[in-house]
Fold:
Amino acid sequence: MTPSLAYEDKGIDSSSTPLVLVHGHPFDRTMWAPQIETFSAARRVIAPDLRGYGASPVVPGITLLSDFARDIEALLDDLKVETFVLAGLSMGGQIVMECYDRFPGRIRGLVLADTFPAAETAEGRRTRGAMADRLLREGMRGYADEVLEKMVAPYADAEVKAHVHRMMTATPPEGAAAALRGRAERPDYRTLLTRVTVPALVVVGADDAYTPVADAQAMHAALPDSTLRVIDGAAHMPNLERPAEFNEALGAFLARVDG
Structure:
């Protein structure tokens, strides 16, 4: 059964293409606050909390990327949003790829930020399973403390660090663990990227240790029609670390799609 997602729906219906924002792990829709504020002035912007995150229902066990994609499709059906630009960061970017595989005809543009398309390795599956066990056993705080300065750069603004840490520690461990187990089973999207028929924007923080610039360059090369933007002075979350630069790149892309 598809759970009813919590979401933000801001802005007005206009001739501009709606923008749908998919957050990463272990965050919630507030990670997109700078983008919601900026782009809702001229278009409808929708940002859900994925199942297991934020204010959405927690579904323990395993949550596959296809489950997240079905949830998003159902939400957009309920909101009567037929076509849109779909943007995701990290795990959100992988969900965006899954969405494109499921309902490409509704998507007018893809934004893939700080993500990568390859299937999980055997070692990666073991690591994600062990981390899921740890989160269920210990909760989120220890993990959040450890990874904060990889999620955002050590030199990031203190308020940005605090926001990211709050999101991580507020995430229900059961939801985070279910997503980790599901993400370990994801398919390989590299061939899918070569079949994308809409424009794409690939964005990455220059200092991202999780998804390095080389991963973004490979996606850019695979996509038939894409723009690559490397954001200096940012790690894994350039939309929060360098919102002006991120929004400039996204704004130019949206203008192209609208045009």
User: Anything to note?
Assistant: The chain has a mean pLDDT of 97. The radius of gyration is 17 Å. Residues 189 and 225 are 16 Å apart (CA to CA). The first helix runs from residue 33 to 39.
